[in-house]
Amino acid sequence: MTKSTQNLRTGIAGISVFLIGLIGIPVLYFVGIIPIETVNMLGRYMAFAIVAVGLDLLWGYTGILSLCQAFFFALGGYAMGMYLVHHGPLDGDGIPRALYVVSSEVTGLTLPWFWKPFKYFPIAFLLGLALPGIVALLIGYFGFISRVRGVYFAILTQAITVAAWLIFCLNNMKLCGTNGLTNFVTIAGFELTHPNVKLGLYVSTVLSLGFAYIICRYVANSRLGRILIAIRDNENQLRFLGYKPHLFKMFVFVVAAMIGGLGGMLYAPQMGIFTPEYMTAKWSILMVIWVAVGGRGTLSGAVLGALVVNLSYNFITSKAPDYWLFVQGTLFIGVVLLFPDGLMGIWKRLAMRIGNRLSTREQVEISNVDVA
Amino acid sequence: MKHTQRIEDYKNDSPKFSRLWSERYLLFLEEITAVFDGFKALDIEALGIEHNELRVIIGPNGAGKTTLCDVVSGKTRPTTGSVYFDDAEITHESETEIVLLGIGRKFQTPTVFDSLTTYENMELALPGHQKLWPNLFGRAPAVERDRILEILERVGLAEELNREAKYLSHGQRQWLAISVLILSNPKLLLVDEPAAGLTDAETALTAELLLELKTDHTLIVIEHDMDFVRRLDSFVTVLNEGQVMAEGTLSKLQENEEVIEAYLGR
Ligand SMILES: Nc1ncnc2c1ncn2[C@@H]1O[C@H](COP(=O)(O)OP(=O)(O)OP(=O)(O)O)[C@@H](O)[C@H]1O
Ligand SMILES: [Mg+2]
Q: What is the rounded distance in angstroms from the CA atom of residue A335 to the CA atom of residue B155?
């Protein structure tokens, strides 16, 4: 077995899993095995998986632990949510109800200027990608140039997320305060409550997840991917080979942020509400947990982790809600201590053992592969 | 016999006094000090390395040899003084800029990228591929692959092409770090203890490689192993407590009382 046939096998496995998500789940819905609510739930979890893939490129490959992916996710969610609110019920002088109800000014409220662009879907969509990208570029520029690293970068990004949360919670910021964005009715003219629209959103999410995955996979497999790993291993050494690590870190930080924004944009219409809650510390840490549980530096592990953790959350909270926090804590500590390579690591070890039993010769050949 | 002719020359040729300094020297350190918490780790009045010279630097532990490399490569900023390289002052340039100007370095503890294979480690060192976007879209041409294989074969790492560097032995890491430096093809090579942890045969090969490089490169080699230094048969600078104590050929230095006292005798 050579490296290329190995690649082919993982490729085929990946495409099969993708097709199950894209076609299998809708088929199960059409034949009546799963209700549309389940499809909708899976769609939301796949939106989480999109953020996780970006975070894995950042943390798993490049070694940058960022605690503001939840902020980028929320920026995407707000961009899409503001679009949706524009097309929901209006109060007063054509002010979206979500904004009107938290307003302290009884009369004379006009639509703030920064709300206006979000009325149009293409603009809202582009802003949902661009805003996280620009914010990441700024954080990355100042953070990476001044060589803020490791746990200090994690703290910096967490602080920024908390500050953003405080700002978004303020009523007079005109971002709908702690209530958040509510009263979503239609998206691009389609009723959000209609099962077919829900299915459409699900399918779009699966396609976007595939797209985000392919982007990250391409980056990871390019020569730049090796530079990212080198940054993780020894950033200083890389400087002495003539590279400017901060440029590469900024690049990957922006990519991960935009992917996070994409996740948020798909999450908002499927959730039906978007609040500042996603900027709390809890969510930043949850996202890191998804990647850790799935297995860092594998990309597919991030998808797996996001789905497994959220599905078990869903399962346990419906059966025994009091136990979820214990399960989550155990899961995280267990992974960190016992399975540092996460679910993907366990899977690889199992596959290796089975492979060993099948043919010891094949394993010997793997270690002598040529570079081609 | 404390000062040889060279040390006198430095004073007359220094970039401060002579605009023609760069005709003779590739690298020049002028009135350099590096102070850490009041401790003077380096205190060099003047030191010049000539074009295509192989200069050996010896000295006891803590003499400041590595600090000298740190100052030249931009890792440490000198407290006072100036570093000149190839006609320009580089005292305030960043590490990356200094590398791009043509100064490469092998660290005392051989640093390689553990999660990358031997081949990938080499690939990253290829000069002219350090920009962001070409790395996302481009591929390294095949000519460079041949060059990588040629160097790795020479040092016996061709068998380890696809092995992750974390599984290499200490000696192999040392080789890989040297190979990376050779491949990156800088004008000036700073080689900090290249023979540490190598067998006698490997040490001999290292000396041979460095001497070959001398034909079209300039080198500063730091080493404790006197057999190795003898093999290099080059001009030697002795550092002690941050200062240049003496300079000359190894055989001359071996007769120098002060040097014997401080270093060679022990
Ligand atoms: N960044 C730093 N901060 C504080 N002290 C330093 C720093 N770098 C070097 N020193 C000190 O400067 C002195 C010279 O150290 P240096 O590593 O240059 O010695 P060396 O000649 O390379 O020794 P060896 O032969 O052991 O490698 C040592 O006392 C060291 O502790
Ligand atoms: Mg040293």
A: 41
Evaluate whether residue A359 is within a structural domain. no
* CA separation for the pair A250, A138 (Å, rounded): 9
**Residues with Cβ within 8 Å of residue B104, at least 6 apart in sequence:** A240, B181, B184, B185, B186, B188, B189, B190
- If phi over 0 gives left and psi between -120 and 50 gives alpha, with beta otherwise, what is residue A180? left
In this predicted structure, the answer to whether residue B6 has a pLDDT above a threshold of 70 is yes
CA distance A35 to A349: 36
Domain limits, chain B = 5-109+186-264
Residue matched to tokens 């499809």? A39
Inform me whether the pLDDT recorded for A298 exceeds 50.
yes
When CB atoms are compared, the residue of B96, B136, B162 closest to A222 is: B136
Q: What is the spatial order of strands in the sheet that B243-248 belongs to?
A: B103-106, B188-192, B218-222, B54-58, B236-240, B243-248
Which token pair is B236? 């030697």
For residue A193, the model assigns a pLDDT of 92
Would you state the pLDDT for residue A358?
A: 64
In this structure, is residue A174 part of a structural domain?
A: yes
Number of domains composing chain A: 1
ipTM of the complex model: 0.89
Closest residue to A240, CB basis, from B73, B123, B139 = B73
Percent of chain A having pLDDT more than 90?
69
Whether pLDDT at B175 is above 80: yes
CATH class of residue range B5-109+186-264:
alpha beta
CA distance B105 to B74: 11
What does pTM read for this prediction? 0.91
The pLDDT score that the predictor gives to residue A318 is 87
Cβ within 8 Å of B, A 352-371:
367-371
Mean pLDDT of chain A: 90
A69: domain range?
A: 35-340
Contacts of residue A119, Cβ cutoff 8 Å, sequence gap at least 6: A83, A86
pLDDT at residue A107 in the model:
63
Whether residue A24 is contained in a domain is answered as: no
Rounded Cα distance, B95 and B73, in Å: 6
What pLDDT score was predicted for residue B11?
Answer: 77
Report the percentage of chain B scoring pLDDT > 90. Answer: 69
pLDDT number for residue A331: 81
Residues on chain B bordering chain A, Cβ-to-Cβ distance under 8 angstroms = 73, 75, 95-96, 99-100, 104-105, 107, 111-116, 119-120, 123-125, 127, 129-130, 132, 135-140, 145, 161-163, 180, 184
Closest alpha carbon to B73 in B50, B113, B47, B102:
B102
Residue A290 lies in a domain: yes
Residue ranges of the alpha helices (H) in chain B? 5-13, 21-24, 65-73, 95-101, 118-125, 132-137, 142-154, 170-184, 200-213, 226-232, 250-253, 257-259
Nearest CA in chain B to A227: B124
Give the single-character DSSP code of B111: P
